[in-house]
Amino acid sequence: MAAAGAAAATANALTAATRQPRIGSKQIFLPNITLTLLRTPFLPPTYASFIVPLTFNKLDIKDYLYHAYSVRVLSVRSYVQQQQVRQDKAREKVPKPRRWFRPRSIKKMTVEMESPFVWPPEPEDYSPWDKKTFEALEKAQENERDAKKPYRKQSTPGRGSIAAQAQRLLKGEERWKPEWEDVGEPLEVEKDVPLTR
Q1: Does this model's pTM top 0.85?
Q2: What is the pLDDT of residues 121-154, one digit of tens each?
Q3: Which of 33, 49, 54, 82 could cross-link with 38 by S-S, CB 3.0 to 4.6 Å?
Q4: How many angstroms separate the CA atoms of 184 and 164, rounded?
Q5: What's the gap between Cα 160 and its chain centre?
Q6: Which of 152, 151, 150, 168 is nearest to 160 (CA)?
């Protein structure tokens, strides 16, 4: 009798330990979160990686994926990626010296799913998304930035000839000779100044 009671207690403890936590107990009616699914070709198809808000935890992403997409999640790995320190804020046109700013950290989560998910192949034709106009706009903005900072793209007029001369010197086709003037013997300028020892 005692052995049967102990076996039943052990079975109840095992089922309680292996039972999944209850999903969906947290009610969120109008979520103000943004999850970004990352394209990760180096991961197996049963894994997916997301950029999530810093306040998001592992239970939240399990709950979200189950209720929004009916995807069961087996395990979750998360880490916070700290951003590099930058000089001044990113929105400033001219960064101020010695004013340092660290952008907000990025939290990434990688989930292991029951069923595999494979990204669709990238489209060959981008005309429905008007990619040509987007690229033309990017090029125009880059040209405008270069026009405001002309010293970045322009090179000195003799730069090509200097490079050609360096190649000729390296091949031995030309010998280098100094171009300064020889003014004769060196002249001591301060002869009458006594030197202390």
Answers
A1: no
A2: 888 888 888 999 999 999 999 888 877 765 555 5
A3: 49
A4: 32
A5: 36
A6: 168
pLDDT of residue 90: 67
Q: What is the DSSP letter of 77?
A: E
Alpha helix positions (H), 93-158: 131-148
Instruction: Judge residue 112's burial from the number of C-beta atoms within 10 Å of its C-beta, 0-12 exposed, 13-18 middle, 19 or more buried.
Output: middle
User: Do 83 and 104 form a contact (C-beta atoms < 8 A)?
Assistant: yes
Residue with tokens 């301060």: 190
The amino acid that residue 22 corresponds to is R
Q: Hey, what are 162's tokens?
A: 């200097």
> Any idea of the CA torsion for 22, 26, 30, 31, to the nearest 10 degrees?
-80
Give residue for tokens 């107990």.
Answer: 25
Structure tokens at 187: 């002249």
